[in-house]
Each structure stands twice: as structure tokens, then as C-alpha cells.
Amino acid sequence: MKATRIQSFSDGVFAILIxxxxxxFKLPEYQQGGLAQAVLxxxxxxxxxxxxYAYVGILWLFHHDLFDRVTRVTPRLNVLNLSSLFxxxxxxxxxxxxxxxxxxxxxxxxxxAVCAYDALALSISLSYLxxxxxxxxxxxxSASSGPSSGYSDRMRRYPxxxxxxxxxxxxxxxxxxxxxLAFLAAGIAYHGYAYWRSSD
Amino acid sequence: MKATRIQSFSDGVFAILIxxxxxxFKLPEYQQGGLAQAVLxxxxxxxxxxxxYAYVGILWLFHHDLFDRVTRVTPRLNVLNLSSLFxxxxxxxxxxxxxxxxxxxxxxxxxxAVCAYDALALSISLSYLxxxxxxxxxxxxSASSGPSSGYSDRMRRYPxxxxxxxxxxxxxxxxxxxxxLAFLAAGIAYHGYAYWRSSD
Amino acid sequence: MKATRIQSFSDGVFAILIxxxxxxFKLPEYQQGGLAQAVLxxxxxxxxxxxxYAYVGILWLFHHDLFDRVTRVTPRLNVLNLSSLFxxxxxxxxxxxxxxxxxxxxxxxxxxAVCAYDALALSISLSYLxxxxxxxxxxxxSASSGPSSGYSDRMRRYPxxxxxxxxxxxxxxxxxxxxxLAFLAAGIAYHGYAYWRSSD
Amino acid sequence: MKATRIQSFSDGVFAILIxxxxxxFKLPEYQQGGLAQAVLxxxxxxxxxxxxYAYVGILWLFHHDLFDRVTRVTPRLNVLNLSSLFxxxxxxxxxxxxxxxxxxxxxxxxxxAVCAYDALALSISLSYLxxxxxxxxxxxxSASSGPSSGYSDRMRRYPxxxxxxxxxxxxxxxxxxxxxLAFLAAGIAYHGYAYWRSSD
Lengths: 200, 200, 200, 200
Description:
The structure is a homotetramer.
Chain A: H1 3-20, H2 35-40, H3 43-67, H4 75-89, H5 91-103, H6 107-137, H7 150-172, H8 177-198
């Protein structure tokens, strides 16, 4: 398989997923004359949608930059990549979970939803760590992106930070769901910052 | 990232969104023998679908023409483009809002739905203005489309007009929802006219 | 716009639509122990799905063959093509209409659903006729596919036949919905036959 | 039609299908405070989703490898391929069937759902056998993948094994649904093993 193929398949999955997310943002039930209030009461869904859209968008940019440097595709890389994409598709589920729990706020429910989102985000970061390690161990990366390049230095440094933020969010959920949500948002924002830096 | 990549990802999002819109056009509940009436009573949904399909189609043509002239992709351009696509995906929500409010017409509900659509359309026009400005300021456009070209002249002239039409629709909604809907339709039609002219 | 772009956007819409159709094929409600009967009772949905999938698949093959011969893309061609794709996306709605009316058979309801499907199929055939005429009038077709080629001869001959079959189905619906369904199936089968011949 | 076109259309269908599967994984109804239990009670859906995602992913890899070796596309190949993709899209339905029957376990219902999944998997394996046979009989494969190559040897050997496993699952369902599910999982796992070997 050529490297362009795995990339265009993955790009397709990202494009579809990012567009499908909006389908989870459904019209509310409302009393005649009460459409405005019903829509405004959906702010948790809107918030979860904005955050998840940004997250998937950044993952796409990261994925794209990484696979642009791939020179050889092996069966194992396909399996690693499909597993990573699988975890990414689950974001539409954990987004809905978070939105629903926030719209009828009950502390144990919100805690569960945030922890589920954290666990998923943490797994996605791990999947990129595994992909990156496999690529550098098997010399599937282009010469200029090899183990001693600036790109590789950054790729090794970023996942531990985001994993740390998601793990903190998971633990914090048992003390305060607000602190937990802040750590989750920080993890996603960190991806954005890391992409901004890494693509200089 | 190569310019062709951001374009094919965006094309994918447009193709998916334009096809997903039809999923909002659901079968009505009906009494046996009353299918025809039930379907015909769905005209507001059909109308909102036709208008929104046309709108997304024209946005795709505009986006495509613009990114065909892009010679360099920066992280900031990716962020601007993903933000613009995010607003565009929200059209499926505001389409449903408009369709639902028109099928059980209550003036405050229709007004809210039209204003939501206007605010979204206005934001989309603004996002193109920001993208265009960024591209011309950073010389990311091909030479023949640069700041002093006929293309750029047109690109600078169009967004203010459509923004004006959507703002008028927003304001008019507080006087008459019919006038407001007419301004909204005029804004979308203007995009079609502008595309037709700009691609000569 | 390059010809490959309009083709790959259209291919995307076809691929998405053909895959989305299956979403209309939903699990039935059932009593515990009665799953088999409930699923088998869904044969009208399965039938409508098979027929519509085949129809969209053939339309894609036709569209693809036609746009492979296009050498120049104009704004008007984009508008004609987006209109044709719009009608094609509506097939998922008329498929559901047909499936639902057949599962609780009431003659006026089935007649309405078949006539709606006919009207849509007829409009799609007309849209290809318009596209073909525009292409040959404006010399947007490659030399070997021009007005006097064997390809063009066939393209001129096919739409009138399929339009005739769909019109017959429409009229026949007022006498017998079975005869009407047979004409509709014949129209779709004719597309398959025509594609088979035209791509020799 | 060029070979790259049928491949990119098929890749599109696979990418869309694999992403749409997650839409079947819907939020559960739950009592306030009971979100965690409600989500954990969805394990059959999660299981069916994981298995089906893996299955579609492996089918994509197989399909991709096969069509990479295709040098000529005929109308008959298009029809065979569209038929195979049709069967593949049905996996989203049989996945839901399996998930739903497992969440309210009733032996006849689960048996029906497993047998439906088996019948579909068996048909998909058959469709690849037909495609492979057609390709080798008509010399549409590249020289290095021809009838006497190692690739062809493997392609001839694999489908009978998977067909045997799915047939065993079908028969076993009448004795024990657990044994039947094990055979089904073995069939899908065998595809993974076969891909791993064939792409060496």
C-alpha cells in the first residue's frame, strides 16, 4: 500500500467524523412560542460540540503532518492506524454523553461522562505515541523527520504532557467536576498549541 | 501541508455536509390513506432543504475557487479554514430550526429561527472575509490572484454586500418575518450571482 | 475549476449517498422471541433499498463516464451538476416513502409513493439530458466524445427511453400499482442495460 | 474507467461506512444518577461495534490490496464490485441486529441475529471469490499478481476457509449460540490473519 492511500483513507474518516458530529446536535422539543428558550437551554450540547469539533480538527492536523512523513506502509502500521481511528470515532459517543449529562446535571453522571471522555482522550494520545514509536523504530519516516530531527524531539515530548493533563482530569473528577472539565479543556487546548509549534 | 490537501479535506466536508442535509428531511407520521397530505404538509422542510442545499453548494464553489489560488498553507490558515467549516456544518441545525418553526408557525418562533439562520450566514460571510484578508496580507495567493488582481477586487466587494443583506434580514425580523425571509433568500441568491460573476 | 475536481466532488456525493441509504434500513420493533418475523416483515424496506442502491450505483457509473469526457468546467455546468446531485440525494427520501407505504399497504398511499419516485426518477433523467445537451452545445466534451461520436449517439437515445418508462409508471399507477412498480423497475433496469452497452 | 477511480470510490464507501457504524452506538436512556450503569449495560453494542469495525477495516485492506493489482476496469467488474460493497453496507444493519438481540437475550432472537450475520459474512466472502475469479479469468490483474503468483495462490486459499468458518457458525447456532459466536469471531479473526500474511 502506498503512503498516500493510508493518508487519504484516514483523511476521509476525519472529514466524515467531523461532519457527522453535527448530527448529534439535534433540535430540542419545545412548546409553541418557546423555541428560543429551548435552543438556548442546549448550551451544553453546543459546548460539547465546539470542543469536540476542535479536538477532531486538531487530531486531523496532527495525523496529517505525521503521515506526510511516512515513507513505507506495513500491515502493522495499518492496524495501529485503524485502531487509532476507531478510538477517534468513539469521540462522537463521548461527546453526546458529556452533553447529555451536563443538560440534566447530576454530579455522579457528569463525573462518569467526563471520566469516559478523559479515558478516551488518553487512549487516543497513547495510540499516537505507539504509532510514532513504531514509525521511528522501523525507519518508516522520511530522513528529515527521523529519530534525531527536531520534529521527532517534539513528537516525543508532547504525548506525555497531554496524557498527564487527561489523567489529572480523570483524578480531579472525584474532587470537583469543574476542575476536571478545566483539565480536559486544557488537554485539548494543549494539542492546539503543540500543533501550532510543531508545524513552524 | 500541501495546498491540495487542505482543499481535498474541505471538499470532503462540503460533499458530506451537502449529502447529510437530506437526512434532516424525514418521513412524516401519517394516517393510513393520508400519505399524500402528510408529505405535502412538509413543504417548509422541503423549502429549507432546497435553500440550504443551494447555499452549501455555492459556498463550496466559492471555497474551491479561493483555495485553488492558495500557494502556501500555514497553521493559521488551517485554523481559519476549520473555523469556517465549523460554521458551515451548523447550517444543518439552523436549516432544521427554520423548517420546524415554519411547520407550526408562531411568529416569535419563526423570528428566532430566521435570526439564528441570519447570524450564522453572517458569521460564515465574515469567516470568508477573514480568510481572504489573511491570504492577501501574507502573500499566500498565487501571483495572478494577488491584492491588485480583478479576482481580489471582487472578493473584497462581495462579503460586505452579503453581510449587509443578512444584517437587514436580522433587523427586519422584528418588523415582519416575511420581509426577513426575503432578505435571507436575497443574501443566498447574491452569493450565487457573485460566484457566477467571479468565475467568468 | 479543473474537470477532475467536479468529478471527485460528485464521486464523493455518490459514495456518501449510496452508503447513507442503509441508515434508512432501521431495526424493527419486536416482541422478545419475535425478531425473525419482525425482520422478515421488513421485506419492503429491503426491496426499496436494493432497488435504490442499484439505481444510485448505475447513476454514478453514468455520471462518471460522462464527466470523464468533460474537458472544461463552466459555472453553468457546476449549477447543472449540483442540481442533478440535489435530485439524486432526494432518492433516499422517496426510497423511505416507498418502503413505508408498502409495509402498511393502502392503495392511495402506495400510488402516491410510486408516483413521487417516478417524478423524481424522471427529473433525474431530464437533468442528465440537460447536462448532456449543454456539454455538446458548448464543446465541453473531449473530441472523441463529440456530437457525432458513437458515445453521443447513445447518450441522445437513452434518456427518452427511460423518461418514457417512468412516465408510463406514473400513468399506470392510477390503474394498478403493481403494473406501475413494474414500469419503475424496468426504468432502472434499463439504465443498467444502457450503461452496460454504452461502456463497451 | 480508470482503475484508480473504482478504487477511490470504493475507498470512499469503506471510509464512510466505517465512520457511520458509530452512529448505531446511541446513548442509552437512563435515570438521573444512573448514567454509568446504563452505559455499562450497553456492552453488547460496544462488542458488536468493535467486531464490525475490525471486520470492515480488514475488508478495506483486502479490497485495497486486490484493486491495487487491477489493470483494467470493465462494466462487469463495476457490477461485481458494487454488489460486494452493497453486502458490506448491510453490515451496519446486522451489527445492530446482533447488538439488540444480545442486550435482551432470548435464544431464538440471538440465533436469528447470529445466523443473519453469518449469512451476510458468507456472502461477502463469496463476492470476493467471484471478483477474484473474474479478475484472473479475464487477465485484469497486473503481471506480478497473475494466476500463478504467490498472491493468487493465497487469494484462492483464503475464501474457502472463511466461508467454512461462517457456515460452521451458522450450523452451530442451532446447538449453541455461544459456539456460534465463537465461530463468527474466528472467521473475522481469520481475515485479519490472512491479510497479515498476504501483505508480507
